[in-house]
Amino acid sequence: MKRFWGFVVKEFLHIFRDYRTLLILFGMPAVQLILFGFVITNEIKDARFAVLDLSKDETTRQITEKITSSGYFRLDRNLNTYHEIEAAFREGDIRLVVVFEPDFARRLEKERAAHVQLIGDASDPNTANILVNYATGILNNYLLSLNAEAIPLQIIPEARMMYNQELKGVFMFVPGLMAMLLMLISALMTSLSITREKELGTMELLLASPLRPMQIVVGKVFPYVFLAFINACIIILLGWAVFGVPVRGSIALLLFESFLFISMALSLGILISCITNSQQLAMMISLVALMLPTILLSGFIFPVENMPVILQWLCHIMPPMYFITVIKSIMLKGNGLFFIWKETLILIGFTLFFILLSVKKFKIRLA
Question: What is the pLDDT along the chain (367 residues), one digit of tens a residue?
Fold first, then answer.
């Protein structure tokens, strides 16, 4: 029995001395609890909206103030014509547009009813539906404060969804799944391919061959570039053929952006392989550092605006967030490079950063 308890104590000491095991046991659950606790919520705050006020009276001004002061919305701009609505949505910042019909206050007073049009950006159908419901609730609460008379007043909201009128959830999931799959396939498989050579001891044989180190890395990576790009094409094709997800923009631009994201993910996989020596560690880093952030902190499922400020900062250093924005902009909104040049430059910057850091780490290991 003493031997048994001695063995148990030895195992405890072994675990406590291994910081990686402690990190998995205690660090990972704590991080996941915090992330899921803050990120998984249906409540939306500070969503940007625009107002097209064709009446410009005291009543429409009060309703706009009610919407703004609710905490769910933040007024981004005032529009002057219907033509500005499409442009505002294409820029990607506006989630909802509230349109007041002409003579709103007079119609409400004389005819006892007036119309408000609520136009949502349904490229993210869940968020659009929630925001329309929020705005409808605010309008109803405003009416309750006015309906003290015998004849009740009516504000009739008319909801309209841009880019996804049927509110199909697949319009949101296809771009997000595309980002997640390309990230995992490219980064995970690349990191495992190179660390496998290190773990088996064959990397030294490769380095002793006539091939240069950079040629070895490129040779290892190139098949995954091809396979990941084929995967991207399959996802786009299946999304269109099976689920009806349109490609309203340039297919050439969509494929270029996909290739750019794959290159970024591959460069990240090379970096992971340069800082690890085992497939197990490379897989853990890839899954924990890539899959969860791609799902939770990229705007794939949960809007970034919902999150605390610190998590929003983390979202902005997650490359999948920019790629998902690009994919939705091209596929659903039909935008060109003019509307996504910032995200494109950011992805290029990430790619160059990971490549330069990988080259530096790789040279250090050769020394």
Answer: 666 566 567 656 766 676 665 665 566 556 655 655 555 555 677 889 999 999 898 989 999 999 999 888 999 999 998 889 988 898 888 899 999 999 988 888 888 888 899 999 888 888 888 899 999 999 888 888 776 554 566 777 888 888 887 777 778 788 888 888 888 778 877 777 777 777 776 666 666 667 666 666 666 677 778 888 888 888 888 888 888 888 999 999 999 999 999 989 888 888 888 787 777 777 777 777 777 777 777 877 777 777 778 888 888 888 999 999 999 999 988 899 989 999 999 999 999 998 888 777 765 444 4
In the chain, list all ranges with CATH 3.40.1710.10. 47-162
* Second-level CATH architecture of 47-162: 3-Layer(aba) Sandwich (3.40)
CA dist 239 and 83 (Å) reads 30
The answer to whether 117 touches 51, Cβ cutoff 8 Å, is: no
User: Do the strands 47-53 and 96-100 form a parallel or antiparallel pair, or are they unpaired?
Assistant: parallel
